[in-house]
Amino acid sequence: MNYQSTQKLKSSHGITLIALVITIILLLILSGVAIYHLTNDNGLLKKATKSADLHEKEKNKEQIKLLQAEADTFVYTSQLNLQDLNYTESTRRLPNPDRGFYYPAIIVGNSTGFDYSQVNNAISDALNTNRTLVHLRINISKLSGRANGNGDLNLSDADIADLNSAFDLLRKNKLKAIVRVAYDYDGETNKEPYTLSAILKHIEQFKTIFETNKDIITVVEAGFIGQWGEMHDSDYANPKDINEILKALLKTVPDTITVNARTLTMYRNLFGSDPIRENTAYDGSGASRLGMFNDGYLGSESDLGTYYNREEDLKFLESHANYTFFGGEAVAPNNPYNDIENAQVEMFRTHTTYLNYIWNNEITQVKWGNSIYNGPNSIYKGQTAQKYIEDHLGYRFVLKKSKISPNVKQGEKLAISINIENTGFGNVINEKKVKLMLKNPEMIYVTDTNIDVRQWNSNETITKNIVFTIPNDINTGEWEIYLKIEDKENDQYVIQFANDETWNPYVNANYIGKFNVVKNENAKEVGLKQEYAGFEGDGTKDIILPDMNVQLDGKGDEWTKSYFVAEKDGIKVYYYEKDNFGYLYCTPINPDELKHALVKYGQQDENYSIAYTSGSWNGTWEITDITQTELYPWSSNATLKENIAESYSVQGEDGIEFQMKLSGLNPEKQYTKIKLELFATGYGPYPDVTIEFERK
Prior knowledge:
eight-stranded parallel beta barrel; twelve-stranded mixed β-sheet; alpha/beta; single chain; 21% helix
């Protein structure tokens, strides 16, 4: 056979083989077989066939091919089931973090420290209106020699303690802060120190405050100079000095937090004319962390001097504000820029995330409150402009579709495909953690995912395909599936989907559907073993706490388990372990008044500790009758009598955490037995719950 005929034969065989492959693929598609590729990166699913649902951009094609080339392949022999959920956007006001209308509170320095009484008023306003942001305006004029007439001062220990206490008030009420420090909040000029070096030193002194409270700081506005800290009308309002102030702030503020300058000109003077784009977002550079606050928002052609060229600056923000915060104060009510017809368009272009609700109230409350929204979002047609704007400041995630494997054998792979639309003006800016939860009436499994919700872009719908190996020893039967989106720094702050009937306040997560676990006779006998001594029906249960070291990386045998312990008069007690600590959750009757009580038990460096945290509730809790068989002196003010803490009572406002620590325990002792009685006072009534547990 000559060379030409050989090549023809090879070509013919190749064509036949290709035709056969295409035929098989078509048959699989027609018969409902879904083929997936499982990546090695925490189980993220990618479809093998090209699909518009993936919403991947053309420039990412090479990366997708690489992931597929490295992936293991498996085949589902049936289609995923579409879940019976309401996929329409709700008009509920959601208490989601890092977005929305804010309430301002001025903290004023005095001779003994800082007066933060206004913070309580802002907290009350926020809680009463289901909002989550407070604008902390820290007046440090007392530190400026030009303002106090005596010379420049440093922050004292009392100053720092007072400022941290102000942040603590927000933390205890599950609110977050926009922070601006300035020498003037009275509209006066040149109250800054006489030297730039003194200002830079004051910025440096805030490092410990920013670091201590980074879990509840949404963004830091640059401030420091000018009237109201707006960086104008000051001897230092020049490019050279502003550059030094911004560089000092970017160095002082933790790198997980964005700093906002007053204008884009300030950004360009420091980092050039290019905005941040996807390939440079979150790279840790100063440019990627410098956003903008606009306190002349929608006020004129230039927004009262904010924009050098409005159209050019809006084009800049269309990219840049996808990855940095943008917000401010609406002003000048009698102009067309803040008419709802114009404002709604520009809010999407600038990705507006936060606005002052108080100033200017003639716009935010009167003008927008009396205007009717008639834009493209059909769900909000006929609502007030204020309602539409408030709900869509920042991100707003709507579950549009959820499909799940209907039946999965123990120890095998669970596939999930969800479509999420971000109907908000902006994106998530601060990094979040996304966890997948499996729940039945008696147990909860939790595992981490590698989903980054910062990539769920405004005005887009994305598809997330996820696969996990479920545990080998998971109970058979029906299981619910939840996605929990929480702050990386503080898991108190969670994101709700804008769907009706998907939010579960008991687990602080979004319900996305259910599936059925089928017995697998071949599943390996691995997993975490638990034994319980029996429930006597009076709310008391002996719990044996085993030693466990559970990793959270998405693998099937490394889920965190949460066990049902006891139930009394509607209160359910769950136990779970993480990082060698055991936790007891008490779930309430009414989730709107009380999220959960938490009792923490563990061992670290031969020290045992028990902690209690109240839920979202205006009443108080008490812990009494704490006994231990091998009790050493408490490192607290408990009253001891014959080695029994006869009465140890702790009370406080919502969210306060109380700890009782036992130091110097004999490491040779084999067990510690503790009995807790939890009972509620205040609103209610709620039944008492007694929990007794021991470590062996």
